[in-house]
Design a protein that fits this description.
By secondary structure, this protein is mostly helical. It has five helices and no strands. α2 packs across α3. The chain is globular, with a radius of gyration of 12 Å.
């Protein structure tokens, strides 16, 4: 998350405002102290202008760390 945010030239505050999420919660997610929900990952991908698949995807097209819900 941090690398993607920095590549988009955004501060933590700016990213949190784009999602929208309070900065403290965003920081906990970015630092790995809390697990980001799929909805949050989609919002972050949108905020930095990439698809979730291209940001989190593996070479076989699966989204890394996301399992299907059944």
């Amino acid at each position: 998350m941090r690398a993607a945010r920095l590549q988009a030239n955004l501060t933590q505050e700016a990213m949190a405002n784009r999602i929208p999420m309070d900065r403290a919660t965003y920081v906990r997610n970015e630092q790995g102290h809390a697990a980001a929900l799929l909805d949050t990952l989609i919002l972050i991908a949108d905020a930095i202008g990439v698809s979730l698949r291209s940001w989190c995807g593996s070479p076989d097209g699966a989204v890394v760390g996301v399992t299907s819900l059944r």
